[in-house]
């Protein structure tokens, strides 16, 4: 976990790492993230050979498999630009776990250099771009779930709130046990489905108790989990990744 | 001994028991609120955590020397030190001391190491009465159970259940549900036992190498009774509990108590430095310190896993664990439950038996966030997952590779194969989006409580290309 990070000046160019879950299920989230950055006058490069950060295998103990996939990502970011990631857990993987995964390998230094320039999208918007958002949307009541990796591993929970608070027509409501895990945990949901089901059911209940109309999440894993639960119960609460939510409310063409 | 090979079954049973769920939720909420209130200044809290982590890291870095120093100073103080390689050896040492005194009755203060040794069963098999005097431990013993929490052993029971237990076991005592009256009943029953006990046994929270002092933290006074009333006191603790100097104790005690219960100081804090000296009016004639290794040296050998041994047993990690809070301690099937249990127990018992425990976490990090000595618990859980499925025998963890299963290994190999070939990966993802209408509506247990995820119409790779982002 980190608290004090030194942030650079606004760069001319960045790499965007879209993440595999977003690629298949929530492409609009990464697209929105790239558009938010581009609108601030920064060139966005989406290296087309990117696939997955390797986290699923890493967290399942399959380190060789994770390392092979991570190695393939290293080639996508050859230059010294910041790497921006719209997910707390994938950003955490690259920033905190890549150095462990590549310890005592020929790539050790290269990986550390990469880890040093990985940012979660929300922290990049707040601390590097110092973004100012103008809300063009209709009034909305929003509950936020940041993801545990964003909150505890990357230490950037507050940045999510700060971004939403810039939106004049958005009322941010706070659900009970806000900081508690939603029960996704990647393969945890597969290995221990009953415990995961209990966790997500409670999480969804706390969120629907707020009478929010939208659930905003900082990670698509949590979003898939909590929204899946809310929809299963025929709740009307819309689930959105924070990037999609911010982009849609601040882009004139989306209104 | 319990095993955790059926962790899943036990956790599902616990989930299906609304009483257990309510008891844990209520108790954990209370303990979390107390810690928050007791450590409300984040600056002070984080400084203390850093200081205490430093103390523990320092002690572990010179553990062999400190243990020698501890032995030397204890011996000088008149405390007899016994080393035990295994649990069996430790049990036999205790038994031998009992026999030397023709002792048949032991009264016990709270000790998780004695739980690790399964000392009660061992002594009972040798016709020695072994009575727990910590109220929670006493309740668990009456019920024929094991502790479900390391500092609150009977936390899985509410007062109604405890009252019912007392009614069954002591039909002569008036039925009470008021916790204070229940505690008074237990106190009256136990008081008699203290006087009759031949030997008192306790755990140790910190053993100070510099002075040969054994520190014991408690709230009920039973620890003091166990260590002063019977003629012989046996302390048992793991070899990792040693700290270098007396000045390490104030910060550790401070943070231990505040992390555990939110108290500013425990009701009792005992520093045992010797048996009764000539002219003293109380205290045991003999004090013994039994130090079981039981795989700790093996854990010590590993640069990363050594951090397991920092633990000061406050229980904060389990209080804050969303998994523990839902399934309770018994589901783990290990002496110590929760996140630290899932780290320490598989290393002692073996990943073959307890290899499922490291997977019983979402890696949400709540445990690591509250640990008073900054044990990187999620990293250690991740490491043990690796040790469980590693594809070679170069490691040192007991039962390594035993969790590796053919199908799972094949899935990860195929996953890796696909994700190192960008063109193939893009094609696979694009194909998935085109076939999305064929996606099944049922996806195993996932869709029992959730809608299935919806595959997008087009992949991010396609959309990024269309918008001109992939022009690197």
Automatic annotation (TrEMBL), chain A:
<dbReference type="Pfam" id="PF02754">
    <property type="entry name" value="CCG"/>
</dbReference>
<dbReference type="InterPro" id="IPR004017">
    <property type="entry name" value="Cys_rich_dom"/>
</dbReference>
<feature type="domain" description="Cysteine-rich">
    <location>
        <begin position="15"/>
        <end position="95"/>
    </location>
</feature>
<feature type="domain" description="Cysteine-rich">
    <location>
        <begin position="142"/>
        <end position="226"/>
    </location>
</feature>
<dbReference type="GO" id="GO:0005829">
    <property type="term" value="C:cytosol"/>
</dbReference>
<dbReference type="GO" id="GO:0016491">
    <property type="term" value="F:oxidoreductase activity"/>
</dbReference>
<protein>
    <submittedName>
        <fullName>Oxidoreductase</fullName>
    </submittedName>
</protein>
Automatic annotation (TrEMBL), chain B:
<dbReference type="Pfam" id="PF02589">
    <property type="entry name" value="LUD_dom"/>
</dbReference>
<keyword id="KW-0004">4Fe-4S</keyword>
<dbReference type="InterPro" id="IPR024569">
    <property type="entry name" value="LutB_C"/>
</dbReference>
<dbReference type="GO" id="GO:0046872">
    <property type="term" value="F:metal ion binding"/>
</dbReference>
<dbReference type="InterPro" id="IPR009051">
    <property type="entry name" value="Helical_ferredxn"/>
</dbReference>
<keyword id="KW-0411">Iron-sulfur</keyword>
<keyword id="KW-0408">Iron</keyword>
<dbReference type="InterPro" id="IPR017896">
    <property type="entry name" value="4Fe4S_Fe-S-bd"/>
</dbReference>
<keyword id="KW-0249">Electron transport</keyword>
<dbReference type="InterPro" id="IPR004452">
    <property type="entry name" value="LutB/LldF"/>
</dbReference>
<dbReference type="GO" id="GO:0051539">
    <property type="term" value="F:4 iron, 4 sulfur cluster binding"/>
</dbReference>
<keyword id="KW-0479">Metal-binding</keyword>
<dbReference type="InterPro" id="IPR037171">
    <property type="entry name" value="NagB/RpiA_transferase-like"/>
</dbReference>
<protein>
    <submittedName>
        <fullName>Iron-sulfur cluster-binding protein</fullName>
    </submittedName>
</protein>
<dbReference type="Pfam" id="PF13183">
    <property type="entry name" value="Fer4_8"/>
</dbReference>
<feature type="domain" description="4Fe-4S ferredoxin-type">
    <location>
        <begin position="302"/>
        <end position="332"/>
    </location>
</feature>
<dbReference type="Pfam" id="PF11870">
    <property type="entry name" value="LutB_C"/>
</dbReference>
<dbReference type="InterPro" id="IPR024185">
    <property type="entry name" value="FTHF_cligase-like_sf"/>
</dbReference>
<keyword id="KW-0813">Transport</keyword>
<dbReference type="InterPro" id="IPR017900">
    <property type="entry name" value="4Fe4S_Fe_S_CS"/>
</dbReference>
<dbReference type="InterPro" id="IPR003741">
    <property type="entry name" value="LUD_dom"/>
</dbReference>
<dbReference type="GO" id="GO:0006089">
    <property type="term" value="P:lactate metabolic process"/>
</dbReference>
């Amino acid at each position: 976990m980190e608290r004090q990070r030194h942030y650079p000046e606004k760069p001319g160019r960045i790499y965007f790492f879209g993440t595999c879950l977003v690629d298949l299920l929530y492409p609009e989230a990464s697209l929105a993230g790239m558009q938010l950055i581009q609108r601030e006058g920064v060139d966005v490069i989406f290296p087309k050979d990117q696939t997955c950060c390797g986290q699923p295998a890493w967290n399942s103990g399959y380190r060789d498999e994770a390392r092979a996939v991570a190695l393939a990502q290293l080639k996508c970011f050859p230059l010294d630009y910041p790497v921006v990631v719209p997910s707390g857990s994938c950003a955490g993987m690259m920033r905190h776990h890549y150095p462990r995964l590549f310890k005592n390998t020929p790539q050790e230094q290269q990986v550390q250099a990469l880890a040093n320039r990985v940012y979660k999208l929300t922290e990049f918007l707040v601390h590097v771009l110092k973004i100012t958002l103008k809300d063009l949307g209709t009034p909305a009541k929003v509950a936020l779930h940041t993801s545990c990796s964003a909150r505890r591993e990357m230490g950037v929970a507050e940045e999510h709130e700060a971004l939403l608070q810039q939106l004049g027509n958005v009322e941010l409501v706070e659900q009970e046990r806000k900081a508690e895990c939603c029960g996704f945990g990647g393969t945890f949901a597969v290995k221990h489905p009953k415990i995961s089901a209990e966790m997500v059911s409670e999480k969804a209940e706390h969120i629907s108790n707020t009478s929010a109309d939208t659930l905003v999440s900082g990670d698509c894993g949590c979003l898939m989990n909590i929204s899946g639960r809310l929809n299963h119960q025929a709740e009307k609460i819309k689930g959105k990744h924070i990037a999609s939510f911010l982009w849609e409310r601040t882009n004139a063409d989306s209104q | 001994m319990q095993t955790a090979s059926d962790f899943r079954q036990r956790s599902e049973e616990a989930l299906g028991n609304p009483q257990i769920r309510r008891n844990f939720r209520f108790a954990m909420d209370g303990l979390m609120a107390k810690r928050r209130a007791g450590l409300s200044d984040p600056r002070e809290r984080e400084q203390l955590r850093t200081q205490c982590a430093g103390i523990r890291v320092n002690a572990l870095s010179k553990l062999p020397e400190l243990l020698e120093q501890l032995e030397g100073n204890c011996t000088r103080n008149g405390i007899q030190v016994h080393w035990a390689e295994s649990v069996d050896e430790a049990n036999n040492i205790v038994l031998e001391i009992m026999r030397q005194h023709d002792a048949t009755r032991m009264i016990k203060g709270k000790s998780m190491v004695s739980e690790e040794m399964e000392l009660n069963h061992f002594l009972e098999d040798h016709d020695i009465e072994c009575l727990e005097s910590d109220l929670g431990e006493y309740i668990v013993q009456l019920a024929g159970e094991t502790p479900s929490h390391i500092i609150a052993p009977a936390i899985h029971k509410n007062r109604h259940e405890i009252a019912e237990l007392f009614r069954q076991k002591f039909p002569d005592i008036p039925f009470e549900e008021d916790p204070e009256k229940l505690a008074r009943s237990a106190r009256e029953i136990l008081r008699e036992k203290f006087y009759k006990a031949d030997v008192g046994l306790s755990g140790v929270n910190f053993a100070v190498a510099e002075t040969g002092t054994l520190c014991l933290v408690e709230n009920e006074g039973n620890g003091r009774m166990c260590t002063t009333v019977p003629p012989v006191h046996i302390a048992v603790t793991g070899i990792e509990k040693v700290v270098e100097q007396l000045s390490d104790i104030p910060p550790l005690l401070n943070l231990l108590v505040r992390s555990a219960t939110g108290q500013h100081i425990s009701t009792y804090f005992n520093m045992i430095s010797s048996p009764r000296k000539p002219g003293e009016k109380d205290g045991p004639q003999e004090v013994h310190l039994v130090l079981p290794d039981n795989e700790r040296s093996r854990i010590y050998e590993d640069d990363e896993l050594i951090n397991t041994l920092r633990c000061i047993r406050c229980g904060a990690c389990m209080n804050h664990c969303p998994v523990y809070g839902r399934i309770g301690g018994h589901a783990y099937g290990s002496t110590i439950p929760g996140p630290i249990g899932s780290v320490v127990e598989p290393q002692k018992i073996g990943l073959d038996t307890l290899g499922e425990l490291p997977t019983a976490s979402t890696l949400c990090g709540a445990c690591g966030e509250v640990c008073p000595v900054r044990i990187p618990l999620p990293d250690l859980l991740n490491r043990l997952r690796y040790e469980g499925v590693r594809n070679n025998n170069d490691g040192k963890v007991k039962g390594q590779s035993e969790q590796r299963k053919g199908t799972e290994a094949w899935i990860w190999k195929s996953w890796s194969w696909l994700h190192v070939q960008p063109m193939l990966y893009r094609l696979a993802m694009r194909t998935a989006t085109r076939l999305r209408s064929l996606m099944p509506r049922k996806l195993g247990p996932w869709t029992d409580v959730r809608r299935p995820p919806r595959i997008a119409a087009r992949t991010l790779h396609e959309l990024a290309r269309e918008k001109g982002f992939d022009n690197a």
